[in-house]
Design goal:
Layout: H1 10-33, H2 38-42, H3 53-72, H4 86-101, H5 105-108, E1 115-118, E2 126-129, H6 130-155, H7 162-166
Antiparallel strand pairs: 1-2
Length: 169
């Protein structure tokens, strides 16, 4: 039995983005309860040369939209990445989840051999086949930023566990 490209992408993105929304809600409640300025969490980094939490969520959202759109052969929606608050990040995740809801298996399945070029015409141009793009690039990138979001919050004292990270499955 083979797994479909759709099953390996859109439902996975939806599960993890929903769990990220829940993580952010827990973090916001923690900040309020402990009287911590929310920016402490939103601008936190695991190390000085890494992106802050806000950017981690933005990039994870970008990958979920971009990978799904490219696999389906539709235009990748561009968002401004101007989020500044927990509410802004929740809105970004909701918009991304809404975008993902629009995909059907028929749009993505069968595109394992689709040519996908990222950053065309630039020194960072990369060429992939659809399945390789998802499995060797898109999913690892997505999970890196989702996991880093979790790690930033956890390392700053937000009480989270693996169950929170996984979300509903």
């Amino acid at each position: 039995m083979t797994i479909s490209l759709y099953a390996a992408s859109v439902p996975v993105f939806k599960q993890m983005l929903a769990s990220t929304a829940a993580l952010l809600a827990i973090a916001e409640a923690h900040a309020k309860a402990k009287k911590i300025d929310p920016q402490v969490f939103l601008q936190a980094r695991l190390f000085p040369d890494m992106f802050p939490l806000i950017r981690q969520v933005q990039i994870a959202s970008d990958f979920a939209r971009g990978v799904s759109a490219r696999l389906a052969g539709v235009e990748v929606p561009k968002y401004e990445d101007k989020e500044q608050s927990f509410a802004d990040l929740q809105e970004l995740l909701a918009k991304t989840l809404s975008f993902l809801e629009g995909f059907t298996p028929a749009q993505i399945d069968g595109n394992e051999e689709r040519d996908i070029i990222t950053r065309p015409g630039t020194p960072k141009e990369r060429r992939f086949r659809g399945q390789d793009y998802l499995l060797t690039y898109g999913l690892p990138q997505f999970f890196f930023h989702i996991t880093t979001t979790y790690a930033i919050l956890r390392s700053n004292g937000v009480e989270l566990g693996k169950k929170d990270y996984m979300g509903a499955y």
